[in-house]
Amino acid sequence: MPNTFILGIESSCDETAAAVVRSGELMISNVVASQIATHKPYGGVVPELASREHLRAIVPVVKQALAEAGKTFQSIDALAVTQGPGLAGSLLVGISYAKALAYALDKPLIAVNHLEGHIHAVLLEERQKGYRELQFPALALVVSGGHTHLYLAEQRADSWSYENIGHTRDDAAGEAFDKVAKLLGLGYPGGPVIDCLSKHGDPHAVKFPPSQIKHPDRRVKSSTPSQRTREDGPPTAVAARPRFDFSYSGIKTAVLRYVETHNMAGSIDARRHALTPIVKPKLEDYLANCDKQTLDLVASFQRAVVGDLVSKTLAAAREYEVATLFVTGGVAANGELRETFEREAAEQGLPVFFPSRPLSTDNAAMIAAAAYPKFVAKQFAPADFSAEVGMALR
Ligand code: KG4
Ligand code: ZN
Predict the structure, then answer these.
(1) CA distance 119 to 141
(2) Cα 1 to ligand 1 centre (Å)
(3) For ligand 1, is residue 178 a contact (CB within 6 Å)?
(4) What single string gives the DSSP state of each residue in 194-251?
(5) Could you give the C-alpha distances from 334 to 11, 143, 197, in angstroms and in order?
(6) What is the DSSP string of 303-326?
(7) Global confidence as pTM
(8) Is the pLDDT of residue 227 over 90?
(9) Residue 348 burial by CB count (10 A; 0-12/13-18/19+): exposed, middle or buried?
(10) Ligand 1 close to Cβ of residue 117 (< 6 A)
């Protein structure tokens, strides 16, 4: 179906987004209203404020996405909306609006898993560049503020299937970036700031022990189907296939211990006071308020997280003999992560693909792209579907 225009809507966390995508392969418009300014004073996303901001932004964002695409409500073919995972109140704003719109326009509505969206951001952009010869199975690392998940992704006819072969046992990698930045008085969100500052520090200055996962994952170990979570897959797959899990709460605690044992509290407070009044601090503002010790700590933290993400993902890629690697989600915007993956995957002879930076973080183009195969397969959402906060991808 070469000219299918899908309006995607995304509101799972702190970005209200809408986009029009043609047939899963051409992004016509992509509008994202960020809530960073709202949540910044709290150092993280406040769910109630997020829902309120989505309510405020959703109508203008959708109208802008249609206008920029040169489309009207009547001239789109279908709507797609994020069903989960995400914050309940935030998801419900997007879902309620999309349902009402689909009903009023008498157009089909497709429910999309946010994580599937992140994976399809890569596919959308590769198709847009004209590259259609991707080899499968692919291994996808979805690494964001809420997730650090590894999926084997395969396409059979028009439908996609995913098998989860690893996830974080505690904090997501992006969450660790955000918590460490908050701890060091660098504001919110932490990933982009740490990314920029790391270039100015010595990544070998502070040694962090490698993350250790001592206990088997209880969610995977359970032997009866009733004890198993939806993410785990069928019993045979669980028993036979090795897993590649992550853990990032230990490194966050190690940074805290370092701060305590090196008496950094005073300089952190001073930095917080200096940066808080600046609405959008620039790199120079951060650098003017960071000593060498802080820059070294930040660079060492980033190097440790990147090293862990890359080594585990490439080990999984070898174990599962995948043909292609996708790295996607907000943390995929990280410069050192991209460079390290590119270098080390090349040594392994493995092609690696990332979304562009704007499509790495949350957006609705990825939702509209992931919806296209479902549109072709006529997998439309039932009228009574609702938000699924912990929605698994399979
Ligand atoms: O995918 P995303 O926009 O939202 C979620 O689904 O969570 O990811 C947001 C996360 C935040 O934790 C943010 O700090 C992190 O992605 N992030 C980065 C970078 N840009 C965003 N982390 C490291 N380096 C970056 N350049
Ligand atoms: Zn996301």
Answers:
(1) 8
(2) 34
(3) yes
(4) HHHHHTTS-TTSS--PPP---S--HHHH--SGGGS-GGG--HHHHHHS----B--HHH
(5) 23, 10, 12
(6) HHHHHHHHHHHHHHHHHTT-SEEE
(7) 0.93
(8) no
(9) exposed
(10) no
Q: CB–CB of 20/29 below 8 Å?
A: yes
The answer, yes or no, to whether any atom of ligand 1 lies below 6 A from the CB of 86, is no
Number of continuous H segments (helices) and E segments (strands) in the chain: 15, 10
Going by DSSP bridges, is the β-strand pair 109-113/159-167 parallel, antiparallel, or unpaired?
unpaired
- Gap between the Cα atoms of 340 and 71, Å rounded: 41
Both tokens assigned to 304: 């440790």
CA-based radius of gyration for the chain: 21
Residue that the structure tokens 């439908």 belong to: 159
**Is the minimum distance from the CB of 195 to ligand 1 under 6 angstroms?**
yes
> Two tokens at 333?
């915007």
Residue 207 and residue 130 in contact, taking contact as beta carbons nearer than 8 Å: no
Q: What is the pLDDT of residues 313-368, one digit of tens each?
A: 999 999 999 999 999 999 999 999 999 999 999 999 999 999 999 999 999 999 99
DSSP structure class, residue 41? G
pLDDT digits (tens, 9 = 90+) for 47-86: 999 999 999 999 999 999 999 999 999 999 999 999 999 9
Tens of pLDDT, residues 98-149: 999 999 999 999 999 999 999 999 999 999 998 877 899 999 999 999 999 9
Please give the Cα distance from 165 to 176 (Å, whole number).
21
Asked whether 386 and 95 are in contact (CB, 8 A), the reply is yes
Q: Kind and range of the H or E element at 285?
A: helix 283-288
Select from 308, 331, 366 the residue to mutate for testing ligand 1; criterion: most ligand atoms less than 8 Å from CB: 331
Ligand nearest to the CA of 114: 2
Measured between alpha carbons, how far is residue 102 from residues 196, 223, 242, 262 in Å? 42, 42, 42, 57
**Side chain identity, residue 122:** V
H or E element, residue 8: strand 5-10
Which tens digits make up the pLDDT trace of 277-293? Answer: 998 999 999 999 999 99
Q: Locate tokens 């962090």: which residue?
A: 208
